Amino acid sequence: MNAPIELQSSPFRPASRLAPIGVSEILKITGKAAELKRQGRDIISLGTGEPDFDTPDYVKDAAKRAMDGGATKYTALDGTPELKTAIRAKFKRENGLEFAQDEITVSAGAKQVIFNAMMATLEVGDEVIIPTPYWVTYADIVALMGGKPMFVPCHEANGFRLTAEDLAQAITPRTRWLILNSPSNPSGAAYSDTDYRPILDVLAASPHVWLMVDDIYEHILYDEFRFVTPAAIEPSLRERTLTINGVSKAYAMTGWRIGYAGGPSALIRAMAVVQSQSTSCPSSISQAAAIAALYGPTQVIAERCRSFRSRRDLVVAALNKLEGITCQVPKGAFYTFAGCAGLIGKSTSDGQRINSDTDFAKYLLRSVGVAVVPGSAFGLARYFRISYATSTSELEEACQRIAHAVKQLS
After folding, report:
1. Could you read off the pLDDT of 239-276 as tens digits, one per residue?
2. Does 59 fall in a domain?
3. Are residues 243 and 317 in the same domain?
4. What is the pLDDT of residues 366-379, one digit of tens each?
5. Which among 275, 295, 315 is the end of a domain?
6. Does 109 lie in the same domain as 123?
7. Rounded CA gap, 305 and 311, in Å?
């Protein structure tokens, strides 16, 4: 009788496709701040891009009615007909864009929309132009699909906006997409129609390049800045533009996980194939809530935007008083992206040298219990991001702590 064969268990081996990416630096910092809080430390976390307001009552009421009415089953793969109709009405009413029903997709958050689009279109080695500073997820999704992120620095002197000249130099025969985000995470930069125009002219002359537009912060704008979206400015690009939005930021619905997009039907169909083999349909209850949000009153958005603006002004003024820190006034979103180049090379009271923006962020967390995100996480070093989507009292305390920490450097 043969002896039994002993099988040796092998250590876990992650797929090679994960090698270029990691957990978001924002999530790491947020997690570290939460861990310190659990240990009893007095921590103010300014790292998360999430409104501190609650979801409006009329939206929650719609979700309750949906549950009571039995809307708890699978829905159509990429959005109910009712939600797609509401999204089409929103695009027409607010953006001057007309989409057919089969040109709309709904996913579990705007992040999944981006994921689906890249999975459906990228071949190994395809290039995606990403202006920096950028939301960290853009590059990681591209890399996960085997694509190549092509970073184009956008300098403070131009308000952290992409220039047509830099875009033209970045385009190659392998370029598949350009990603634009306005208002921007992390910088708060926003593009007017005149800012967009030369960029769109470059794209018009580059017919192989598609445009992905992330408009998730559309309704969080300040100082009478007028929002525009590229497909409305240049209709000739409509057939190679994916316009992405969602309910997370404007309606404080981050946990409901509803993102959507309008684009060419062939692309939308391909994205549906991806979604069919991943999450399938978004939450039925969340879709009902999103319908109420899109059709509902806009006063609550305007009121909250005014609150964000006053918080922005508080943080910008406080940071600009500090020697070694400079901070532009953001046009939108709820972030400041402040320069800390003047602090590089200084030392802490215990003799540790600040060699980078990452060192500075670690120093703030360690010394005064304030969590911020270093600019290098967004592809542009010597800056740091503050999310002012938190209470005024916390922001005032955080700014006082940051001022104290900066004054201790020598």
Report:
1. 999 999 999 999 999 999 999 999 999 999 999 999 99
2. no
3. no
4. 999 999 999 999 99
5. 295
6. yes
7. 10
